[in-house]
Amino acid sequence: MREEDFGICPYVTVQKLLSGKWTLIILFLLAKKTMRFSELQREIPRLTQATLTKQLRTLEKDGLIIRTVYNQIPPKVEYSLSDMGEKFKPVIKSLKDWGDEYIMFSKKRDCTKL
Known about the structure:
- By secondary structure, this protein is α+β, with helices and mostly antiparallel strands.
- It is built from 6 helices and 3 strands.
- The N and C termini lie far apart (40 Å).
- This is HTH-type transcriptional regulator YybR.
């Protein structure tokens, strides 16, 4: 598969959309509720401000999230899932379920090594 297959092959497209290190975590958090930048930073303390900014811009450019700016002082900006991002919620749930199963699987494998 080639990168130029983005937008043609569904697997290449999804892999490219989810390629950011923190993309899944950000989408997971926004699937629970609309959040401000500072809230996202608190939830992911190891994520730098620059990286969070870059990931949010990419997700917005890709149409997965919406950035809403409120015309007030001090400025208020919120992030939420777009309609396409909302359609990703069942995928997030499936990934969580698979991750839970894999964790149990790997624990059982570790026990057999003893």
